[in-house]
Amino acid sequence: MSTKKKFNKIFRNLWNKYRLSIYNEDTYEAVWQLRLSRMNVIVFLGGFAIVLVALVTVLIAFTPLREFIPGYPDSKTRKGYVENALKIDSLERVIVKWQRYYEDINILLNGGEPLTGREIKPDTLMRSSKIDLSRSDEDSLLRLQIESNEMFNLSIGTPQEDNKRIPFFIPPVKGIITNKYNPSNKHYGIDLVAAPNEVVLAVAKGTVVISTWSLETGYTIAIQHEDGFISVYKHNSRLLKKQGEMVATGDAIAIIGNSGELTTGPHLHFELWHNGAPVDPSKFIKL
User: Which helix (H) or strand (E) element contains residue 91?
Assistant: First the structure.
């Protein structure tokens, strides 16, 4: 018998009718009968399996039963995923912002010009130096009026808010100023000559953000202070603090020296920056 004939015989057998009967055991009377074929059984079982799979899928997808499946996250876990994703995104933005900030500081410390066109804004103190502060007649009359009104006022005034924001600075070394602050000549700090091996002190408490060596400025250390101030110490012979360390006011951070190409002798080149722009250190520190 050929394969084709065998296949046709099997196919015809699928359609052969059979009778399923249920009899009463005592009377042998047919109680229930059902005529069916093999194909009917296959179709019925296949349809039942499809309906069962669809029902289970709907229960898992649209009901809380899915949380009982091992490995499937519950609502709290999914909420945690979303919150962590938002926090990671925020942290990435902060990291990018700080990376740009430190890149700007490195450029400035290596002799580059101030970057005022990016996120770093010019210092308001620098802009105020260009304003005409001469007293006008109207200003003099207003001052006289206020002084007369306050002459018998016994209330104790509170210091201005701006004065609270200016931290207290001490001199970095005991020395003589040989080169003053002159931004027109790209000299954004002051040069202090002191005794050999003089210890350089932190002008205020803060965090060391840079402690490195460069070809131009030699051993350089920078400290981040409160209210956007950064102090920079260049041309040292040795550094005593590492990046990331906390320092207090007056802590020894370096030894004065003559390192780097941009130096003409043993001295300390000291710079003070506020919000990314240089300021005259002699206006903030009594040297």
Answer: helix 75-109
Strands 277-279 and 229-239: unpaired
Backbone conformation region of residue 244, classed left if phi is above 0, alpha if psi is from -120 to 50, else beta: left
- CATH code for 165-283? 2.70.70.10
DSSP state of 181: -
212, 220 in Cβ contact below 8 A?
A: yes
261/24 Cα distance (integer angstroms):
114
Cα distances (angstroms) measured from residue 268 to each of 43, 50, 171, 202, 231: 94, 84, 12, 13, 12
Phi/psi for 31 (5° steps) reads -90, -40
**pLDDT tens-place string over residues 57-82:** 887 777 776 666 666 666 677 777 78
pLDDT, one tens digit per residue, over 97-136 is: 777 777 777 776 666 654 544 444 444 444 444 545 555 5
Number of Cβ within a 10 Å radius of residue 238:
12
Give domain limits for the chain: 3-64, 165-283
